[in-house]
Every structure is written in structure tokens, then in C-alpha cells.
Design goal:
By secondary structure, the chain is an alpha+beta fold. The protein is about 20% helix and about 40% strand. This is Protein BatD.
Length: about 550
């Protein structure tokens, strides 16, 4: 069984997919070099290759070729095999000047040639080659308020212990880092460097020719240092400081005659979110509408405020605008999102005006407009009240209990009538009270009072509708409640405005005291009218 397992594993590894040679890479450990210095040439092929396949005879023209070592390695990651063959060749320059290490070719795949600078000095100070900064202004000419992209690369030829890269500086501009740092590697003049890349956004506030001061790096790196009398080199920590080159940037002023807010971007777009599955809206029903403004390669501080005009019959309760920026596909995108609740107050057909945002296209050098077309909405009356549920035949009392139930209800009605007649006979006609309310109505009124003492406008409106419906014995909507009395209509309107405006300005709070006072005044007026009508009927 063990033998079969070993054979199975061997068969598995032999049947792994082959790794074809498609890359040869050549690097050197130092460049430039001194006249009496040696350097190590490393050639890597991404496949298992025989040692004699690398022909180094072309090196003899410019270099003394020393020992050559060959190593092979195989890695299997997720059943994918990665093979590598590595040659290391010790070279000594025959002369000074610019020497070329030619390309090496195996199975039609070639490496890049390397130009090596050989100095007249015995030793070369390579601190500048160990660590340096390159900066690139991707947009050398911009308008005032336009975002300019500045890419910084820090090249490290040694191991970094610690360090700090400062931000570039420019008078009369805002500078901010975009996204996170990118850590990678590059081969420069045959040497492999660790490269830390960082992107900055620069927004100039004034026009003219401005100077961008390059960033500065300060830190500690590990450099090889020979020990006195020793045979081996050791690494020691050394502080280093380097800076890039300053860059000039030309800032153009906005065109003459420009009116309104100045917005310059690569692309500006407007989009709207509106209920699409509703053709008609009822009076008093809020409609949620969201407008989003997107500007590519622009900062969030440059976005204008959105003006959303509406007819007088449509009340607007906007929420606080949401403003943010994010990086997408290497570009900074600024976003402004505004959500509003639109409440119709009258029946009819109304027009929501179009929304337009003018902006300047720096590539086409012209004024453009991002827009959302207007739309028409139809507003109808309030929805009809829900019918009172009736007792179905399935839930009605059975015939066997009906006579007893009828007799019980009749006796109860007779006792109530006799008691009411006796109380009327004992009391003066002018002090006859109105019939007492059911216990459920009293509980609803208490719930209304508790809600009005709080700050929840929705709870106030819901409790008022429930209490009035129970008080009058029919479904009373908020629209119907506003017609019962003028103070009640004003109190309900104020709470509705505060309810939908709580995320907007925040300057108005629901007034529960006015609501409970209006309902108490309505009941007092109703009781007075009822008592007067009862007094007229008694002699």
C-alpha cells in the first residue's frame, strides 16, 4: 500500500503542468563601480535550464570573468509548480568608461542589456545611488481650482530600517495625499530597487507660475561596512537624507466672463433617484428624491451647492448633504448627494424644474453643463378611509345562543335607560352632562397626552389620528382633522413640518402643547354645543 502511495505521488508530480521559459532577467549588485572593484552579475530564468545553456563568452571583451555558480529551485503553490534557474557570475572591468553587459538568449527568450559605468576612482561613493527620489507632475498646466496630480517615487537600493517621506509644498495651493502608498520593485541600470510610490493632489488657489518644492526623505538604512582586519562584510545602520528636484507648474486663471460657481473637472455628471413605479401621489404623502453630483479629478471642496426649486404647492424638507471623495482607477472622484422629502399640499399637476450645473472642461477648453431634465407629477386627493370590518357569518354567534344574548342586551339597555331618566329628573336641565365616553377613548387620550409631552412628531400625529377616530366613531385622517378647527389644522401642520425637517435645518421642533390645547378647545366647543342643544329640548 505504501508503495502504491509513493507511485501515485510520483505520478502526480510528473504529471504537473510544465512551466515554459518566458522570462530571463539580468541584474548587477552595483552600478557604477570603481576601477579596481568587482561586481556580481545575476541571471535568472523562470524554468529549469541546464547550466551550460548560458553563454557568457561575450563578457570576455570588457570584463574578466571569475567563478560562476548555478542554483535551481522549485516551488509548488496550490498545485502550480514554479521553477527557477539562477546564475551568479563575478566580473571585473578591464577598463574605465561605459561598458555594456550584452543580453543573454535561451530558447528565443532574451534579457535586457546593462550599461555599467566604471569610474577612474578606486572606490565610488554610492550613497546617491542607494537612495534617491523622483517626482513627476502629471498635469504641468492647470486652471485655478483644478486638481493637479503629482507622483513621487522613493528608490531604495538598501534595506530600510525606518524613515519618513514629507509631503511636497507650494505657496498658494492645497496639497493632499490620494490613496495609499504602493510598494513594488524596479530595475534601473541593471540594479533592482525597492520603490515606494505615492500620489498627491495639488489644487492651486491663484494663477501664475508657481514652484512645487519636492518632498524630503530622512531615515536609517543598512549599508555594508567591512570590519577592520576581518574577511567578511557586515551591515550597519546609517542615517541618510535625500530630496527630489523642484518642479514648476503653470496655473491658468478662469476664463473671462464666467458667471456662477467655478468648477473645473475632467467629467461632471448628475443623476436622480425618484419613485418610478408610482404614477400618482396623494396629498400629504412624502415623496423621497435624491440628487447625486459626481466630478472626476476634482476635490470635494470645489463642488457647488445644489439648488432644487419647487412650486409653492410642493413643500421641501431637505436632509443634510453628504459630501465625500474617493479614488477610482487612479482618479479622485468628488461626490455630493442631496436627499429631500417633497410633500404635496394641493391636488393638481406640477412641474419639477430641470437641474443644471455648469462646469469647465480643461481638455476641450469650453463651458459644459451637467443636467437632469424636469419631470411632471400628478397629485390626487387623500386615499379613502378604510372600511370598518364587519362580523362574518362564520364568526357570528350560533342560533342556539342568540335568544339568550338578545334578552341579556335588552335588559342591559332597559337598566341604562331607567338610570339615565332618574338622573335627569334629579338634576337641573342646564347641568345635564353629555354621555360618558368609553374607557378605550380615555386611554387613547392619555396616550395622546403622553406623546405630546415628548419630542417624537410621528408619535404625536399617530396618537391624534387614533384618538379623534375613536372620539367621533369614524376614521379621521390627518387631512380631515385639519378641517375640524383652525387651531387644530395649524398645530398638525407645524408638527408635519418639524417631522420632515428634522434632518434639514433642525430649527423647528414639534409643538405638542399646541396640539393638545387645540384638541381640548375642540372638545370644549363640542360639549358646549351639545349641552345647549339638550337644554333647548327640556322645558
Amino acid at each position: 500500500m505504501v508503495r502504491n502511495l509513493i507511485l501515485g505521488l510520483a505520478l502526480f508530480f510528473f504529471t504537473l503542468p510544465g512551466w515554459a521559459l518566458d522570462r530571463i532577467e539580468a541584474t548587477v549588485d552595483k552600478n557604477p563601480v570603481g576601477r579596481d572593484e568587482s561586481l556580481v552579475l545575476t541571471v535568472i530564468a523562470d524554468d529549469e535550464v541546464e547550466a551550460n545553456r548560458l553563454d557568457t563568452s561575450a563578457l570576455l571583451r570588457n570584463f574578466l570573468v571569475g567563478r560562476t555558480s548555478v542554483s535551481r529551485s522549485t516551488r509548488i503553490i496550490n498545485f502550480n509548480s514554479e521553477k527557477e534557474t539562477r546564475w551568479q557570475v563575478l566580473l571585473t572591468p578591464r577598463t574605465t568608461g561605459t561598458l555594456t553587459i550584452p543580453s543573454f538568449t535561451i530558447d528565443g527568450v532574451s534579457s535586457a542589456p546593462i550599461r555599467v559605468e566604471v569610474s577612474e576612482q578606486d572606490q565610488v561613493n554610492r550613497d546617491a545611488q542607494y537612495l534617491y527620489i523622483e517626482g513627476e507632475l502629471l498635469t504641468p498646466s492647470v486652471y485655478v481650482g483644478q486638481l493637479a496630480l503629482y507622483k513621487v517615487k522613493l528608490y531604495l537600493g538598501l534595506d530600510l530600517q525606518r524613515g519618513e517621506l514629507s509631503a511636497p509644498q507650494m505657496a498658494g495651493a492645497q496639497i493632499k495625499q490620494l490613496g495609499e502608498d504602493k510598494d513594488g520593485s524596479e530595475i534601473v541600470d541593471g540594479r533592482r530597487f525597492r520603490v515606494i510610490e505615492r500620489m498627491y493632489g495639488i489644487i492651486p488657489d491663484k494663477s501664475g507660475s508657481l514652484t512645487l518644492q519636492a518632498p524630503v526623505f530622512e531615515g536609517d538604512v543598512l549599508v555594508p561596512a567591512p570590519r577592520n582586519g576581518g574577511m567578511f562584510n557586515f551591515n550597519e545602520s546609517r542615517p541618510m537624507r535625500t530630496t527630489g528636484k523642484n518642479t514648476a507648474i503653470e496655473v491658468l486663471d478662469k476664463p473671462e466672463g464666467w458667471q456662477g460657481h467655478w468648477l473645473v473637472a475632467n467629467l461632471v455628471a448628475l443623476k436622480e433617484e425618484f419613485p418610478q413605479d408610482i404614477e400618482e401621489f396623494a396629498v400629504g404623502t412624502p415623496i423621497t428624491r435624491s440628487i447625486t453630483l459626481l466630478a472626476s479629478n476634482a476635490d470635494e471642496t470645489s463642488l457647488p451647492s445644489l439648488n432644487l426649486p419647487l412650486p409653492a404647492e410642493l413643500k421641501s424638507y431637505p436632509e443634510k448633504p453628504e459630501i465625500k471623495s474617493f479614488v477610482r482607477e487612479g482618479q479622485l472622484v468628488a461626490q455630493l448627494r442631496l436627499t429631500q422629502a417633497i410633500v404635496p399640499t394641493e391636488v393638481g399637476t406640477f412641474e419639477l424644474p430641470a437641474i443644471e450645473v455648469p462646469w469647465w472642461n480643461p481638455h476641450l477648453k469650453r463651458r459644459e453643463i451637467a443636467s437632469i431634465p424636469g419631470r411632471t407629477i400628478r397629485v390626487t386627493g387623500p386615499a379613502p378611509a378604510a372600511p370598518v370590518p364587519t362580523i362574518s357569518e362564520a364568526t357570528a354567534p350560533t342560533a342556539s345562543y342568540w335568544p339568550w344574548l338578545t334578552a341579556f342586551l335588552a335588559l342591559g339597555w332597559l337598566a341604562t335607560a331607567l338610570g339615565w331618566a332618574m338622573s335627569v329628573k334629579r338634576a337641573p336641565a342646564s347641568l345635564v352632562p353629555t354621555p360618558s365616553q368609553p374607557q378605550g377613548v380615555s386611554q387613547l387620550k392619555q396616550q395622546l397626552a403622553d406623546a405630546c409631552r415628548g419630542s417624537d412628531g410621528s408619535a404625536m400625529l399617530s396618537a391624534a389620528a387614533d384618538y379623534l377616530s375613536a372620539r367621533y366613531g369614524t376614521n379621521i385622517t390627518l387631512d380631515k382633522a385639519r378641517t375640524l378647527s383652525e387651531p387644530l389644522g395649524k398645530a398638525l401642520g407645524q408638527i408635519q413640518r418639524a417631522r420632515f425637517g428634522q434632518h434639514g435645518t433642525g430649527n423647528e421642533a414639534p409643538d405638542g402643547a399646541s396640539l393638545i390645547a387645540a384638541i381640548e378647545a375642540l372638545e370644549t366647543k363640542t360639549n358646549t354645543s351639545t349641552a345647549a342643544s339638550l337644554g333647548d329640548l327640556n322645558p
